Every structure is written in C-alpha cells, then in structure tokens.
Amino acid sequence: MKVIKLEKKKLIPFLQFISQERELWAPVKKNDRIIYDLIEDFTCIDMNTTRTLLPPKKVIIPQQFNMFRVTGLGYESDYSHAVKKILFGIHPCDIHGLLILDKLFMQDHPDPYYIEARRNTLILGLSCWPDEHCFARSTNTHIIREGFDLFFTDLEHSYLVWVGSSAGDDLIKLKPEFFEQKPTDQDIQDFTYMQIERDTSYKTKINFISMPDLMELKYNETFWEKMGRACLGCGSCSMVCPTCNCYNVIDRHLISEETGERRRYWDSCTLCEYSEVAEGVNFRKNCADRLRLWYTHKMQAFISKYGKASCVGCGRCLLTCPVDINVLTVSKSLQGKDVYAYWNRLPREASDDKSSK
Amino acid sequence: MSKNKLRIGVYGLTGCAGDQLTILNCEDRLLKLFETVDVRSFLMAKSDNLEEELDIALVEGSVSTRSDEESVINIRQRTGSLVAIGICACFGGIQAVFTEPEEWAKQYEQVYGNRSVSSNAALQSRPVKAFVKVDYYLPGCPIHKEQFLALLSRLALGSTPEFHRAPVCLECKWQENDCLLNKNVLCLGPLTTAGCGAICPTCNLPCVGCWGPFEEANCWSEWNLLLDKDYDRNIIMQKMKSFSGTGFIQFFNTMKKERT
Amino acid sequence: MINQASKTAAIENPFLPEPARIVRSYHLIEGVKFFQIRIVDIEKALSFRYLPGQFVMLSILGIGEAPFSISSTPSRPGMLEFCIRDVGRVTNALFALKENSIIGIRGPYGNGFPVETMQNKNLIIISGGLGVAPLRSVLLYSLDNRDLFKDVTFLYGAKRPYEMIFRDEFLRLSKRDDVECLLTVDHDDTGTWTEKTGVVTSLFKYLAEIEPGETYAMVCGPPVMYKYVIDELLKFKIPKHQILMTLERRMKCGIGKCGHCAIDYIYTCIDGPVFSYWDVIHMRELI
C-alpha cells in the first residue's frame, strides 16, 4: 500500500478542496457532545476526539429514513440518504465496525439502502489514541489495513497517509502538490515508536477467546437475571453500538398527503416490542432474555459465523449504559469475575414479580 | 358534507386545551384534513357543532368534575371509537397528582372547606379510561402534530394507529445526546414513552415524563439508580408523580408496602 | 447542487413490493380467510418461483407489511394462495379489502421444505388448526408430483368440524387411494362428523408400519401440539433431522437484515422457517 506524507496545516485545505462535489462528514463538537456531522465550517472539525456519540453507521444508514414512496399503484425507491459523501476522521475501530456491517448488509441478500450509501461514501480514516474505555486492542481492531480510501496517521507535525483504494488515489491526484511522496527515515521511526506506545496504552482489556463457549455454559447464570432486573430497556446500547444493525419499519400515509411512505428506523432487540408476534405473544418477554440475545449475537453467534466477535472495542456501551450493562461487565461475569456495577448491587424488589411476569 | 366521510368530534374535558390547539396548529395541512373528514364538533375551531353520532371522538383532558364525567359518558355512547389525546386524558396528567383518595380528600377540604358545591362538583381527577372504554391513546403534553396526523390517517384507513413503542432514551440517542442520568441528572427518559423527539434532553434539560409512562418502564431500577445518585426519595417521587397521573400508581403502592 | 442521490441503486431493491391483485377471497372458517392473489405484471406472476414452506411479505398501503406462508403449490404457477387468520393490524386490513383490490407482495423468502431431498421418501404431514396453511402447499405439491414420493400421509386435527380449514377439499382427499388422509376433530358438537374424533396424535394408531429412515415428517400447528406429535414420531424412530417443522416469528425484512426473527444465532427468515427437530433441540426459545 502506498504511504505518502501531508503537512498538518495542509489537511484542512485538502479536505476543503476534495469536498467541493461531496458532502464532508466529520467529528465536530456540538453542545458538549462529539458527533459526526455535515461540515460547513472546516475549522470546527475535531481532530483529537476519542469517540463520537453515535458511531459512523449513522452516516451510511441514518437513524430514520424513507425506504420508498407509494404513489397510486406503484412503489418508488427513495435513496435520498445516499448522496456522495466523504467520511473523515473515522478511527480504526469504527472502520472495523463498518466492515462488520458490510458482512451483515452486503453479503447474502444485499440491502440496497446500505450498499448505495456505502458505495457513495469515501472513508478517510484518522489515527487515534485510546482512553481508559477503549479496548480495541482486545478485539484486535485497533489497527486497520483495509476498508478505507485514505488513512491519516497523526505524527505531531505531519500525517502519514495510507492510500487504500484507487478512489483514494484519485483524491490525492486532485492536489498532488500538497503531498510529499516519501516519508523520511525520521517519520518511520516516529511512527514505529508511536505505534508501540499506543499499543501499550490500552488499559481496558477483555479476553474474547472462550466467549462462545462461556455464553453457552453460563446461559442460566444468575447474573443475566440481575442484569435483566436492572436494565432500563432504553435501547441506548444498540443505538451507540457500531455493529448493531436491527431496524424496524412503519408505514405512513397521511390523509393530508398525496403519497405514502415506508419509514425505516434503528431498532433495539432490548425493547419489549422487538420479539412480539401476533396477538401480543412475545418470545422474549423477560428483559434478561433480550439482553442475552444481544450478547449472544455479539459474542457467540457472530464468532461462530465469522470467526471474530461483533464488537470493535470502541467503548461506547461502557460510557452509555446508565446501569453498567456493557461488554466489559458481561464478559467479566461470564469469566466468573467479581463485577462492581449498578446492576450487581441493585436490591431485589420485595414484591419481585419481574421474573415471573 | 358527504355521508362517507369519517365523522369526527374533538372535545376538551379538564385540561389546558393545548392538544386541541396543536390540532389547529396543523395549519395548511388542517385544511386538507377538514376536507377529508367531517368535523362534526370542535368547539375551539367552529361554532356550528352537531352533537350526534360520531366515528371518532378525540377527547382531551382528565375527568375532574361531574360534568366531565357526564360528557365523556355521553361522547362514548355516540362514538365508534374514542381516542384519549394528551397526557391528561391518557393518564390523568398533573391534576391527577393526588392519586390517593385520602390525600385528595384532605386537599379538597383545604380548598373548599365544608361548603357543598352543587352545580359542578369536583371529582378526584382521573384519566378517561377510569370512566369509559378508550380505544386508542395519543399521549403528549401537548400531543405531537405528526403523531396526531399519523393516528387520524390510520383511523381514516380503517386501521389501528401504530407508534414506535420505545422510551424517550431511544429518540434521545438518535438526537445524539449524552445520557443525563450518567451526568447524575434526574431524568425520567427511561420511564417515559417516546414520541416527543427527546426535545428536552436535546436542550440539556431532563425528561419530566410528559409523554406518560412507557409500557415497560422499569421503575424499580430507575428509582434505585436515582437513590444511588443520592437523590432524596421524596424528590424522586415528586418528579415521577408530576406527569404520570395514575400511571405509576402500582409502583408507588408496592413501594409503600416495601416501607412497611 | 451536483450532489444528488440516484433514484435507482446498483442492485434491484428487494424491499420494494410488487403490486398484486386479490383475485378471490372468502371465509374458510370463522376468523380465517382464503386469499387468491396474482401479481399484476403477468410475466412476473408466471415466473414467480417458490418452494412449499416458503413465505412472502404482503403489504397494504399505509398500514404495514407482514409475513405469510404460501398455501398454494408451485406446481400450479400464476396464482398464489394464502390462508390467513385475522390477528393483527395487517390481517385486519387484508380482511377488509374487497376482491380486485391491489396489495403489495415481495418474496418468496425462507428455506422451504427440502422437496428434492425428500424425493423417493415417505411423507407424513401432520397439522393442527391453522398450521395447515404452509403444509397444504407441500401436500398439494406431493400430490401434483405423486410419482416423486413414496407413501404420502396427511393427518389433520381441528377443534371442531366447522373449524377445519379446507374441510371439503380434504374430505375429497380422504376418498383417494394414493394418499392416506386422516382427519380428526377434538369434539364433534354437530353430530354430522363422519371422520375421526380425538386429538391429532390419536391418529397415529391408524398408521401402517413405516420405514423410519425412509420417512420425512412435517409438523405445523399450535405450540402445544409439537411436543406430543414429536414424541409419537420419535416412537416411530424417525430420525430427528427428518422431522421438520415450520415456525412463526415477527419479521420486518424477510432477508436477514432487520434482526427481528433472530433466535440464538439463526434468523427464522433465511435459516428457516423450516427447521428440523435436531435444529430445534439445539436452540432455545424456538418453540
């Protein structure tokens, strides 16, 4: 893979230049939160963020969008979410997240809404530094070697730029004068030291090796029930997870409008409605069962099918769940370790009928 | 007016009339709406109201007086389906905060003393469902235009309305907000039905529960979580009670038992 | 602005329904209606290929979409038949539609019954109540291709005579000698029932000796039925992977994308809805 070099001060002008005919989406700070957003003011791009609140899946498949319109007798696809975009500032773990979604959405029975947006989005990755919640080292997603068009590695005064695709190469060719074709020996040394230091900076560690077996062996452990009792059923974990792909649809045809539409929106398997079938029959009435499904999918099913966990170690669930149900506490529980978490100290309701409900 | 059009009545019991106002606020779409359905009665919008048979009655407000009770029974008798609109009609709203009869009686005495009120006696405020059968609920304080139009459109198609059954948190995450509970703010998002678009948390204000209790609300966990964050139980109870009307009554009853 | 999304994608949109006409609909029993549906585009109607046991998604404008198993046989192309119980929003709306109404259809989805593997084998089809909907497809298919299969046995139990779906059709079948058709009702309160009475498992005693290894059993019915029927089939020593059942789940996409029908690590919509008993004992929450 070709590696070239870009002076730091030239990055913004480069981004400005290449986004003339495409939307540029990048992390920005908005009301104290870091989110991926459409960039209008290029000076607002947050180059140093650890993680965005929602993962970049929202740039490909928005939280909610119309799948098609119903006009008279016909149906008309609506791909308006899939405009040409550049997604800049995406970290290795999140690129891995997209690669996992690619497997789910693009293999067997491909989803055109995903494919269309994915095809129209250029991925410009950016290196990052872990905080205490990152555990991408454990999921082996802290380094990325595929799935991007360009990847920028921050070396204090300049970026080393990996050119990952011919589309990425075309971007470089728009402004070749911005780049130095060969990194210096010093750059290579800086890069090497940086990688080693970064590698050792992951404080949160999870051992995923025996997860599928442990999920099976500990299916009936009491910690599931404890988590189920504490789970607020808010669905936030699914929303912030870079690999959660579930959705729901709702049909709408307002009497005040000429056409109807089918709306698709992010859903979570932790919601009660999720597994309900006709006549209110629910195969997973219990919150514990729903949580177990979530973790079975991430840490057992996906591993069985694709050889790795459907978790990229981004740490979002650790920061999001108000009751401490997350990949870290679940995996610790599976490994039989003591867990300090809200769900573990929540007392049982005296008139506890939750489990029998 | 055509006979085939859906006959609709919009009524207000005890409430702020904000839901009826929201309907009027549909503005340009309202005209189209009024062309499509036959609005028989809507006191806030028109004067030539016919109190006859209806296909759909939209009822706002809680039942707080004898005359409220009489009207709602009368409306029920002449309508095909009845939709409770707004938090007051759905759960009793703010005025149903005194959910316990003794508490309410004490309050009543403080206000009215021993005087007998003959013309329109006050009742302990209750949601519409405490008096008549309610077919559909459209919560909100006030209701959301889009949800109202979606509900009416479904009913006009002869089908049942459908909303995404989730708590506010889901929409809050769509809006990309940091969880306020994680910032130790007393937020009722997890206990509250979605539909508002999480407007309060998006403005960094906690959810006060104005869309009413979520069907799967885990009160026990939220309650203890807030205690864990050093909130006083009376404060938590006050917050949980303010909009939920009779919605959390079962939880409060179990809590009472727990204390004794 | 130059940047505009295209109206068409690189691949065909599998989520887009195809307009289809309700050609015929009538009540089979109370609460259950029969629908004949034909895709409006005649070429697409004739080229619509499916397997017994597969399902489609039916859409009603502005109301929603739901999965329905196909009750007709692919050996009679052009027309699709469904046997639908009025249980929810979409079925309510379907019931209210008049003949000649247009609905949306997409599919077929799911694995269906392994009709090729079952060739030259004995078939035992056991259904209870509305469970006959997907099984009628495989039953008619086996009769239309009678020489492809060895003995075909059809057992069907309903609560009461007037709750037996396709009763007249099956009564005619019971007169044929190339298929063993045994019908039963739990109670006969009409006094006119000429077939068997008792639960569906009571029909097993009428079965001739079977070669278990050479037999496939297909089961569909209310959840309570499975355990008893499977116990009987195991007594006959039919291998677990040759006992097939079809399951129902909530589905929003039909192609393994929305996640709603997930059970452990399988998706009912693409890995099912037909599962073998061997699959089922390895998965929790399945029935």
Automatic annotation (TrEMBL), chain A:
**A matching Pfam family:** Fer4_22
Is-annotated flag, keyword Cell membrane?
no
Domain 4Fe-4S ferredoxin-type: from-to ranges:
220-252, 302-333
The source's superkingdom equals Bacteria
GO molecular function (one)? iron-sulfur cluster binding
**Which UniProt keyword terms apply here?**
Iron, Iron-sulfur, Metal-binding
UniProt name for this protein? 4Fe-4S ferredoxin-type domain-containing protein
Q: Which organism is it from?
A: Candidatus Fischerbacteria bacterium RBG_13_37_8
Q: What is the lineage of its organism?
A: Bacteria, Candidatus Fischeribacteriota
UniProtKB/TrEMBL annotation, chain B:
**Which segments constitute the NADH:ubiquinone oxidoreductase-like 20kDa subunit domain?**
16-154
Q: Does the keyword Oxidoreductase apply?
A: yes
Keywords attached to this entry = Oxidoreductase
One Gene Ontology molecular-function label? oxidoreductase activity
Protein's UniProt keywords contain Oxidoreductase: yes
Segments passing through the bilayer: none
- Which PANTHER family does the entry mention? COENZYME F420-REDUCING HYDROGENASE, GAMMA SUBUNIT (PTHR42845), CYTOSOLIC NIFE-HYDROGENASE, DELTA SUBUNIT (PTHR42845:SF3)
Its name, as the record gives it, is NADH:ubiquinone oxidoreductase-like 20kDa subunit domain-containing protein
- What is the source species? Candidatus Fischerbacteria bacterium RBG_13_37_8
UniProtKB/TrEMBL annotation, chain C:
Keyword Nucleotide-binding listed? The answer is no
What positions does the entry give for [2Fe-2S] cluster binding?
Answer: 253, 258, 261, 269
The Gene Ontology biological process annotation of the record reads:
pyrimidine nucleotide biosynthetic process
- Listed cofactors: [2Fe-2S] cluster
Recorded GO MF terms: 2 iron, 2 sulfur cluster binding; flavin adenine dinucleotide binding; metal ion binding; oxidoreductase activity
Q: Which residues form the FAD-binding FR-type domain?
A: 15-115
What top-level branch of life does the organism fall under?
Bacteria
Free-text cofactor note: Binds 1 [2Fe-2S] cluster per subunit.
Q: Which UniProt keywords apply?
A: 2Fe-2S, Electron transport, FAD, Flavoprotein, Iron, Iron-sulfur, Metal-binding, Transport
Any Pfam family matching the protein: NAD_binding_1
Q: What is this protein called?
A: FAD-binding FR-type domain-containing protein
What taxonomic classification does the UniProt entry list for its organism? Bacteria, Candidatus Fischeribacteriota
